[in-house]
Amino acid sequence: MALDIIGAGFGRTGTESMKRALEILGYGPCYHMYEVIPNKDRFEMWQGIYDGTVTPDWDAVFDGFRATVDWPAARYWRELAAHFPDTKILLTYRDAESWYASMEKTILTFLRDPEKTEGMAPRLRNTVFEGDVSDKDHVIAVYNRNVADVQSAFGPERLLTYQLGSGWEPLCRFLDVDIPEVPYPSGNESASFHQKDQELSKARKA
Q1: In whole angstroms, how far apart are CA 121 and each of 41, 86, 115, 125?
Q2: Residue 186's pLDDT is what?
Q3: Distance CA 173, CA 184 (A)
Q4: Which InterPro entries match (predicted)?
Q5: Is 118 exposed, middle or buried (CB count within 10 Å of its CB: 0-12, 13-18, 19+)?
Q6: How many Å apart are CA 146 and CA 128, to the nearest integer?
Q7: Residue 96: is it exposed, middle or buried by C-beta count within 10 angstroms (0-12/13-18/19+)?
């Protein structure tokens, strides 16, 4: 099974809702950080990929999955798009200020924690954000640059820039599928983010 959809959007752009939406539409299972955190082998593999000590076999990494969104895979959208040339590219997006506000309550708390010297947090900090997660302007600039890079890399026949909150219509039109008779998913609010991370991390260590 090859990937059908590659998510190029940063975390906190509605990626968990998009994961669930794609699975409702039949593009599941969909890879997400939530598939990585509780799984020791995947967690260690992605650390090696980010460190450059593991050369990924993308077919094996995504074996059994039809789509991927969110980090850690989103950092590698260029490599994945080249390896899976027939895939659609999905850029989940929200206004940069809104995105940053959500990041501050969630992911940035991990990336800024000096005690987190292992795992995915320091790797996201050092690779995606170039080692600087304290400067708001820099963090937003990295986000905006990723959006611009993705949008300049693909034409409209392959890329959908999906605005958070847009519902089913643009996604289903892009994928040429019928709109489901269920509401577009919502979830992963900032208030529940940390609890879910703790539960998934405990599952990996059990």
Answers
A1: 17, 31, 10, 6
A2: 87
A3: 14
A4: P-loop_NTPase, Sulfotransfer_4
A5: exposed
A6: 10
A7: middle
Q: In total, how many domains does the chain have? A: 1
> What's the confidence (pLDDT) of residue 206?
59
Give the amino acid at 63: D
Give residues with Cβ within 8 angstroms of 105, minimum separation 6.
190, 193
Helix (H) / strand (E) containing 90: strand 88-93
Other CB atoms closer than 10 Å to residue 7's CB: what's the count?
Answer: 29
Which positions of the chain have pLDDT values less than 50? none
- Say what the pLDDT of residue 151 is: 98
Q: What is the pLDDT of residues 81-137, one digit of tens each?
A: 999 999 999 999 999 999 999 999 999 999 999 998 999 999 999 999 999 999 999
| Domain enclosing residue 161, as ranges | 5-205
Q: Are 92 and 162 in contact (CB under 8 A)?
A: yes
Name residue, tokens 């975390």.
11
Phi, psi of 95 (to 5 degrees): -50, 140
CA triplet 142, 144, 146: central angle to 5 degrees?
Answer: 70
Dig out the tokens for 133 from the structure. 């997660």
